[in-house]
Amino acid sequence: MKTPVIAGIVLAVVVLAALIYTSFGNSHFRCEVCVSYNGHKACRKASAATKEQALRSATDNACAQVASGVTATMVCESAQPVSLTWLN
Q: Which of 7, 21, 39, 41 is the most buried (most CB within 10 A)?
């Protein structure tokens, strides 16, 4: 094999390993958040490096299912969740 081909394969493996590590390696906190907005309810799970990030991500994802538009989404995201469960 030629040197550029080997270098390309090594680079692809390094990028793939970094992607896998950042996707799975830093998720120490997992939670499930249920929100209710305008008569609709949605629950979503999320994981992140901190509790605050996991809670925010799960809330944002759940609100995306029940609210449409910027104003409705902001109201949903600022409201208290119906339920919050921390997962192992």
A: 41
pLDDT of residue 23 exceeding 80, the answer is no
Which of 26, 41, 29 is CA-nearest to residue 79? 41
Q: Which residues, other chains included, contact 71 with Cβ-Cβ below 8 Å and sequence gap of 6+?
A: none
pLDDT tops 80 at residue 24: no
**How far is residue 61's CA from residue 65's CA, in Å, rounded to a whole number?**
7
DSSP string, 46-58: EEESSHHHHHHHH
Q: Is 39 helix (H, G, I), strand (E, B) or coil?
A: coil
Q: What angle do CA 53, 84, 51 make, to 5 degrees?
A: 25
